[in-house]
Amino acid sequence: MSVTFRQVAAFTNKPFAGNPAAVCLLTEPGEEEWLRKIAQELNLPATAFIYPEEDYFNLRWFTATAELELCGHGTLASAYVLYETGQIAPDTSIRFKTRSGFLSASRKNDWIELNLPSEPAQPVTAPPELLQALGVQPRFVGKSRMDYLIEVESETELLSLKPDFNLLKTVPTRGAIVTTRATSSEYDIVSRFFCPSVGLNEDQVTGSAHCTLAPYWLEKLGKSDLRAYQASACGGTLQLRQEDGRIYLAGQAITIISGELAI
C-alpha cells in the first residue's frame, strides 16, 4: 500500500520557517500501531492522518512519541493540503472530527482560519520544579487543560531562556507556554513553547498553545484581535480572535515536500 503525503510548513509563507507537519491522505482508518510507526519514521513535530467520513474528515495527530489531544499546526497543514490538492473548493469550509471535538477551517485569501476550542488558564501556584526548569521569576502563572502559562517581564527575558528540559519533563503537564508583550509594533504578543513530555524540547509554532494565549491576552490588553509571533528558531506568525467562546486562529502555509509512502 502507498500513501500520498505532503510535508507542509505551517504558520509561514516562506520555506524553512514555521512549523513542519506531515499530512498523510488516507482513504480509510489506519491501525493505531501503524500510524505511530509512520509518525516515528517521519519524526516531525506532528504527523496528521486524515480520511473522509460523511460530510467531514477524521483527523488524528501524532508526534514521534505520542498522540496529541489538539494540534493547531497539524490542522492548518491538513486544511492547506485539502485546498491545494483540490479536494475541497476554496470557498468551502472544512470540518474535522478530532480528539478535541469538531474543528473547522475556512480559506480567507492566502490565509486559513481555524475554529478551535478556547483553553483558558486559571491562576495557580507554580510547582517549584517548573520555575526552576525555566529559570524565571514570573509575573503570572496559570494552568489550562493541557499546559502551564507563564508570563515573564520582557521579550529579552523570553528570548534568553535556556530551560532544563530533563527537569521540565518531570512536571505533570503537556508543556509550558512562556509569553510576554511584544517589543515590535508588528506584533502584540510573543511566546515560546516547551514540551519535552511529548518528545519536543521546543516546538516551533504551536497553534494549540494560542488557544490559551488568546483568551489571556485579549482580556489583559482589552483588544478584539491579536497579532502573535512564536519566537522559536524558525518562528511563525498567527492572527487571533475570540467569538462565542471559540478561538479563531489564522495562519499561512507552504508545501515543502510531496511524495508517496511506499508501505
Give a concise summary.
The protein contains 6 helices and 17 strands. It is globular, with a radius of gyration of 18 Å. Helix 2 links the parallel strand 4 (56-62) and strand 5.
Question: What does the model show?
Answer:
With 263 residues, the protein is α+β, with helices and mostly antiparallel strands. Helices cover 20% and strands 41% of the residues. It is built from six helices and 17 strands. It has a 17-stranded mixed beta sheet that branches. The chain is globular and about 50 Å long.
Characteristic key phrases:
6 helices, globular, alpha+beta, 263 residues, 41% strand, Diaminopimelate Epimerase, Chain A, domain 1, 2 domains
Structural class: alpha+beta
Q: How large, in whole angstroms, is the Cα Rg?
A: 18 Å
The whole-number mean of residue pLDDT values reads 96
User: What is the β-strand count?
Assistant: 17
- Give the class-level CATH name of the largest domain: Alpha Beta
**Amount of beta strand:** 35-45%
Q: Low-confidence parts lasting 5 or more residues at pLDDT below 50?
A: none
Which CATH architecture of the largest domain? Roll
Annotated CATH topology of the largest domain: Diaminopimelate Epimerase, Chain A, domain 1
CATH level-four homologous superfamily name of the largest domain = Diaminopimelate Epimerase, Chain A, domain 1
- Which percent bin holds the helix content? 10-25%
Shape: globular
What is the element string, with H for helices and E for strands? EEHEEHEEEEHEEHHEEEHEEEE
Number of helices: 6
Largest sheet: 17 strands, mixed
